[in-house]
What does this fold into?
Amino acid sequence: MKAFLALPVALLLNACMTYPPPSTAPYRAIGTEPFWSLVIDDRDVTFIPAGGEPIRQPRPPAIVGIAGEIYQTPRIHVNIVHASCSDGMSDKIYSDKVQVDVDGKRFNGCGGDPVAPATLAGTNWRVESVNGRPHHSRVITSFSSMQTVSAPSSGATA
It folds into this structure.
């Protein structure tokens, strides 16, 4: 009997939970071959081809699908799939795969926030501040895939 009551109680508690409001920051996506970018803000969906004029359409309500969101305007159709995506050029990983159709032409790319690497292996880091104060060093620390850390010696002492 206790197990039977647990499900309705869990559903009731879930219904009472408050969820954070959707972000008001613009959603951004990029693509290569050819280069393009997309911005979805509170008012517009804007497609910006490299070297071309931006195409701006009023933002329609999002269609929330199983895998992500869809935006459809007369000229721009955007399909956002919440699955990791590599832009293929910078090796950055983004949170979403994005497919954009503009005037019947298809563009594939990545969008959302960049995803932090699972490990530090193969990454480079530069100190920008120490205890909240800007640090003007140009020293870059490299984390190799061989589990070593390297940084050039500056010869300076703290």
Summary: The mean pLDDT is 79. The longest helix spans residues 2-16.
